[in-house]
Amino acid sequence: MKHNWPVTFVLVSLFLVAQLIGLVIIKNYVDLAKTAETGQVEWKSLPTIAGYGLERPDVPPTTSVIYILFAVLIGTVLILLIVRWQSVLLWKLWFWLAVVLCLHIAFAAFMPNQYALLLAVVLGSLKIFKPSVIVHNATELFIYGGLAVIFVPLLTPITAIVLLALISVYDMYAVWKSQHMARMAQFQAASGVFAGLLLPYAPTKLELKAPMKKGKVRTAILGGGDIGFPLIFAGVVMKTAGLEAVLISLGATAALFALLLYGQKKRFYPAMPFLTAGCLLGYGLLVLL
């Protein structure tokens, strides 16, 4: 078993909550009035910042997978360069911007734009510059819903499945072959800023350096991509299947639990292949029902 029972239970529970909150955020961005008029899913605009509206990429579903994979590749290269330069400040500033943007989009699903932006800036700043277990993980529950709202309208169920498959292959290569995923995770932990869920075994203060230093508190982590991609797939399916798409989230949660149950301590695993299998299992049940 990769972690003890209490940590495993909390980590899996937070993953599921992030999926459910994300689906609610995605649903709140559907323009119900226009959808009723056209008979097709119509989306509300993304919130504005200083009068400038955020825009989704203008790409057709047939090329959306290429666009997203290219964005992942560019992001990975930039992070590896930051790791090479050991530029912690640059990493924190870049991550702060991404966190505030995603939180802003997520919170705007529930409140007026100006309040959403203010709350995003406050919580994003606390997350990056004065981290704590509660703030770190609480913001993670909303970040991926904000991210999914950008990409869900670009995909169809088929292209989303292709995306999951390709990301799974990339994850296996990055963890087992090139091992650059482990290097990025270690750098993030050493910098005090990590993209994903994080649970110290003795949660008094958020100590992201714990896994790398002897005598520190052991920490359980789950990468942000492992949360975001299953949510994107569930959101895409929800466009046509409605809230029954929660079966995909439940399938992914079951797969994560199985991975943590049978995984070994102190070993890196590519979670996406397992999560993809869980997503497809949930999707299969949805189709059969």
Task: Tell me the layout of helices and strands.
Elements: H1 5-28, H2 32-38, E1 48-49, E2 52-53, H3 61-85, H4 88-107, H5 113-129, H6 133-151, H7 157-177, H8 180-191, E3 196-200, E4 219-223, H9 224-241, H10 246-262, H11 271-288
Helix pairs in contact: 1-6, 1-9, 1-10, 3-7, 4-5, 4-6, 6-9, 7-9, 7-11, 9-10, 9-11, 10-11
- What is the molecular shape? globular
Structural class, judged by helices and strands? mainly alpha
Order of helices and strands: HHEEHHHHHHEEHHH
Strand order of the largest sheet: 1-2
> How many individual β-strands?
4
What is the residue-mean pLDDT, rounded to a whole number? 89
Estimated radius of gyration? 18 Å
How many DSSP helices? 11
Largest sheet: 2 strands, antiparallel
Percent of sequence in beta strands? under 5%
Residues in helices, as a percent range: 55-70%
Query: How far apart, in Å, are the first and last alpha carbons?
Result: 33 Å
Number of domains: 1
> Which regions contain 5 or more consecutive residues with pLDDT less than 50?
204-215
Outline the structure in words.
The structure is a single chain. The protein is mainly α. It has one domain (5-288). The chain is 69% helix and 5% strand. The protein has helices at residues 5-28, 32-38, 61-85, 88-107, 113-129, 133-151, 157-177, 180-191, 224-241, 246-262, 271-288; strands at 48-49, 52-53, 196-200, 219-223. A two-stranded antiparallel sheet has the order 1-2. Strands 3-4 form a two-stranded antiparallel sheet. Helix 3 packs parallel to helix 7 and helix 4 runs antiparallel to helix 5 (113-129). The protein is globular and about 55 Å long. Mean pLDDT is 89; it is low at 204-215.
